[in-house]
Structure formats: C-alpha cells, structure tokens
Amino acid sequence: MLNIGVIGCGAIGRDHIRRLTDIVPGCQVVACADYFEESANKVAAQYEGMKVYKTGEELIHAPEVQAVVITSSDPSHAGYVLEALKAGKFVFCEKPLAQNAGDCEKIIAAETAHGRRLLQVGFMRRYDRGYAEMKRIIDSGELGAPLMIHACHRNVSQPDGFQTEMGVSNVAIHELDICRWLLGDEYESAQVLKVRQSACSTKGYDNPQIVLLETKSGARIDVEVQVADAYGYDIQCQVVCEKGTVNLPDPYAVVKRANASRSFPILTDWKDRFIEAYDIELTHWVKTLEEKGEPDGPSAWDGYAACVAADALNRSRGTGRFLPVETMEKPELYR
Ligand SMILES: NC(=O)c1ccc[n+]([C@@H]2O[C@H](COP(=O)([O-])OP(=O)(O)OC[C@H]3O[C@@H](n4cnc5c(N)ncnc54)[C@H](O)[C@@H]3O)[C@@H](O)[C@H]2O)c1
Ligand SMILES: O[C@H]1[C@H](O)[C@@H](O)[C@H](O)[C@@H](O)[C@H]1O
Prior knowledge:
Number of helices: 10
Low-confidence stretches: none
Radius of gyration: 20 Å
Bound molecules: nicotinamide-adenine-dinucleotide, 1,2,3,4,5,6-hexahydroxy-cyclohexane
Structural class: alpha/beta
Distance between the termini: 30 Å
C-alpha cells in the first residue's frame, strides 16, 4: 500500500484525493497540506486518519509519506518538486512542471543525480482513449507521414488573476505536450498571435490567441486558445497525414430529439471531460511504482520540453516572428 501526501486542496487536489481513495488500487492518501490551512482541514475531515501538515515542505519530509502529489498552484510546483527529489521521494506533479524552462533544468539536474526516475508530470491526455487511438493510427504508418495538426483548447471562463501568458503556460501547455507526443517529433520554432478579441473577455488578458509551431521534420501546428468562450469546455484535435486524417472524438453524449431539433450537451468542466484519463493516469502511476519501482509516464524531460516551447511562445508575443525552440541535450535517463 503506497502512502501518498497531497499538496494543494483546491479543485484538482480534492478530485485526485477522491480518486486515489475510491478508484485507484494499492494506495491511500495519508496526508494533505494547503497554503490555506482551512482548505486542508476541510478535506481531511472527510477522510479517516488523514493528517494535515501546515506546509508542503513538512508534508514532503513526513516519514509516513512515500509519494507526493503536487496539485497546488503553478508557481509553487518547481519548489515542491525539488524538495521532494531532495527527500528522495516519488513525486507526481500536475502540469505545468514549472513556470519556466530554467526551473525545469534544475529539476532535471536533481533527478538525474539520483540516477533513476522519481517524477511523473500530470499530462493526463496521454491516457485519454481518443488521443491514444490517434497515436496508434499515426504510429502504424497507414496514413503516411503526419503533416499538420489543427487543434483548439476552449475554456468557459477564467478565475481572477488570469494573465495572457497563462493562456500558453497553463492552458496550451497540454497541446504543447500532446502534439509532440502524437507526432513523435520535437519543436523547431514557435510564435503566438493575437487575433480579433472576443467580447467575452473583459478582464485584461488576450482571448483568443493562436499558437503556431513548426516541428523539426517540418510539420506545422496551429492551436486556437480560447480561455473564455462562454459556452463549454471544448477540446478539438485533428492530425492531417499524407493519406488521411485522424480526429479526437467528442466525449460520449446522448442525442436528444425534441422540438424539431437534435441536440446533445457539451461539457463545461475539465474534471468531467478527462475523468477517465485522470483515473487511468493515476492508476498507472501507482501500479508502475509498485511493480517497477519507478514511474514510466510523462517525465521531467517532457515537462521541460513543453516549458521550453511555452517560454519561446510567450517571448514571441508582439514580435511578429517565429522564435527558435532550443532545448539542452537530452540526458541518458530520459532516452
Ligand atoms: N491536468 C489537468 O488537466 C489539470 C486540471 C486542473 C488543474 N491542473 C493544475 O493543478 C494545479 C491546481 O489547479 P486547481 O484548478 O486545483 O487550482 P485551485 O486554485 O482550485 O487550487 C489550488 C490550491 O493550491 C493551494 N496553494 C496555492 N499555493 C500553494 C502553496 N504554495 N502551497 C500549498 N498550497 C498552495 C491553494 O490554496 C488552492 O487550494 C494547477 O497547477 C493547474 O495547472 C491540472
Ligand atoms: O488547469 C486547467 C487544466 O489544466 C485544464 O485541463 C485546462 O483545460 C485549463 O485550461 C487549465 O486552466
């Protein structure tokens, strides 16, 4: 039985605690912490024997905690990951791995010093059945080489404090990971464009933005990033290959026929849209720790590659130019 401590008791922290308790076999959440102690106390009160720590650092070093799940806000990720690696503990960190590529490099240095993997990054889309089937078809070669990806990432709205850069570093970071995974390719250059702005966002951040990427093999990717669309949580992805295309399926929904129309609901929350992917992701994580003694899901290198692209995109804003996406040499541990 793997004893887990969770740092961050907000939306996804609570959701992961629920699934680690009710769905995922072979583990239990024994501790939690949150910047607002009250949030952690409220969560712990719902689960028997769950201990609350005042700080994330105390939780990481608690002797009963064997693995740490980081679900606190983006700026806190790198510090907690480094602390967990210092303690030699397994760590699952929600995306993004860090706020910039430089912090990811520190994490890579800390993990490679151990000589084995301890960290997995929460790029759960790799565990979604739709994306997995798209990858299987692309990898089979039956459609020839992939040439282009057209994707879009639409959220209903954003909380206060959301900023333009987060449209890339927090939101499109999922596409930055899934596109290089689908194509088995790396990025060469990147540019973000501002387009005609939507009246749905009046809070000072750019919406929509278009993320453009070119890969090393010359494939082109465009991602519409709409962080306040006022209608639903809508994730689309089409990979165009030489001899055909593959599309991400829409989530299961019953079609209703009434009042002279056919209709089906569109989800509004990422929790529901990727519920199965999160379940599979964390089940796989716990299973591999138990069976192999280390994780095999998205690595520090994957977290880093996405952050390098995100940094280039955010630097490109307003320049009208594609900027190079340059990574350091890939350490042996991640090959
Ligand atoms: N993989 C996914 O699809 C997915 C989905 C949602 C969120 N996330 C990621 O998970 C993280 C949390 O997102 P959320 O939607 O739950 O946000 P949230 O705001 O609902 O929750 C964040 C929680 O972290 C706490 N917190 C903030 N700074 C902290 C610190 N330094 N130490 C301890 N606790 C701290 C806050 O008090 C809050 O309770 C974000 O990094 C986000 O990018 C990933
Ligand atoms: O933190 C969330 C989460 O990662 C969702 O999957 C994404 O769609 C949202 O845009 C983001 O804010």
